[in-house]
Write a structure and sequence with these properties.
The protein is an alpha+beta fold. It has a domain of 59 residues. It has 6 helices and 14 strands. Strand 9 and strand 10 form a beta hairpin. It is globular.
Length: 241
């Protein structure tokens, strides 16, 4: 694949480590710290090459014998929700969503801690410090914004997005455990698609789809979408996964 970013980049390569998505597999990751690159590559071009942001770092898988992690993006103007997604949207019409700049608020951090303690109990992620929270998710210089999702006066979910000129990148979503029957992860993506379309943007980047991982395969249900292959982005209009 022809690179859209300057070459060579000062990429760091992690040692092999247990794959977070596929049990019994090992993984390896390329990292790029934009603070060490001058001039910095364009964020949109990094997304188009399969990179994701975590704090001030950008990363993408570089596994020797596995290509399971496939970057996925949604052309927001053409997205057509399926019946299940329409039900989720209707079910959550009593929610309100507001955007605010990336800044630390104790209420947001408390919800993040509750979510990780429920979703990743005992996995090493379930007791984040305030610095862990802020450094992982928020980066004002990358256009990070926080979508607050309220049920009346109660904060029930947060969606972290990076806003670019032509696209949004969905960074992370977390929500109150007791609100899980609402399918707030799906609702957050549907709202991001609708808001990106309203703003005249082209893409919503969802990160990596891993077919064999239930917690990552759900992204394929948003159609049409595009997946990054060795010969560029390929349109998928129908899937049976």
């Amino acid at each position: 694949m022809q690179s859209l970013v300057q070459d060579p980049l000062p990429l760091l390569l992690s040692p092999e480590h247990p794959c977070p998505y596929l049990p019994g597999k090992t993984a390896r990751t390329e990292f790029l710290d934009l603070r060490a690159v001058n001039p910095s590559p364009d964020y949109a071009e990094l997304l188009a090459q399969g990179f994701r942001r975590s704090g001030s770092y950008f990363y993408r898988p570089d596994c020797k014998h596995c290509q399971a992690c496939v970057p996925l993006r949604i052309p927001v103007r053409e997205f057509n929700p399926d019946r299940s997604q329409r039900r989720v949207w209707r079910r959550n019409q009593d929610l309100s969503v507001s955007l605010r700049p990336a800044e630390f608020l104790p209420e947001h951090y408390a919800l993040y801690r509750r979510y990780l303690a429920w979703k990743h109990a005992g996995g090493g992620m379930d007791d984040p410090s305030p610095l862990d929270y802020a450094s992982l998710l928020m980066a004002r210089n990358h256009g990070t914004q926080l979508a607050q999702i309220h049920l009346r006066d109660q904060l029930v979910a947060m969606a972290v997005v990076d806003a670019l000129d032509t696209a949004w990148s969905a960074v992370y979503t977390f929500y109150a455990p007791e609100a899980s029957p609402r399918s707030l992860g799906t609702f957050a993506i549907l709202w991001e698609i609708a808001e990106a379309r309203r703003r005249g943007l082209q893409w919503l980047y969802l990160g990596y789809r891993v077919e064999a991982s239930p917690k990552m395969s759900y992204k394929a249900r948003f159609l049409p979408h595009e997946r990054l292959a060795s010969n560029g982005w390929q349109r998928i209009s129908r899937t049976f996964c």
